[in-house]
Write a structure and sequence with these properties.
mainly beta; Immunoglobulin-like; three-stranded antiparallel sheet; 7 strands; 10% helix; disordered N terminus
């Protein structure tokens, strides 16, 4: 016998569903696009931050999580014969990335150029990823 599951509210449509979709669209609008890559020497995370000043960016590392956050503050003003136009764009953003186990927290550099922040994370060399613990016999 097949039992059809119905929502707890019965026949009423889930009115929160459109708001969930809107919330994810808004989060995507404020979250800058990013791209991650790597090779044998390092990992690289590039984040698109057009119009964001370097002073308004912050890169932190805590508990193996690299976080980039900041604020975009842009204003454009035009005046001409018979018109006046002002446009403002403000918003805070934050993106976090869990680093792989072989990432070296002592070898992290960040560079901003042409609206793109690139964070380079060096990789640990062979043998730096862990060590073998000798087991000794009781005395």
């Amino acid at each position: 016998m097949m039992v059809e599951k119905t929502p707890a509210h019965g026949w009423l449509p889930d009115i929160a569903e459109p708001f969930r979709a809107l919330g994810s669209r808004i989060a995507g609008w404020f979250a800058p696009r990013s791209e991650a890559s790597g090779d044998t020497a390092a990992y690289r995370v590039s984040i698109e931050l057009p119009g964001v000043a370097e002073d308004d960016m912050e890169v932190t590392l805590r508990d193996g999580i690299l976080t980039v956050k900041g604020e975009k503050r842009a204003e454009r003003r035009e005046e001409g014969a018979g018109y006046f136009f002002t446009e403002r764009e403000y918003g805070r953003f934050e993106r976090s990335f869990r680093l792989p186990a072989d990432a070296d927290p002592e070898k992290i550099e960040a560079e901003a150029a042409k609206g793109v922040l690139t964070v380079t994370i060096g990789r640990k060399g062979k043998g730096e990823e862990g060590r073998t613990i000798p087991i000794r016999a009781p005395l």
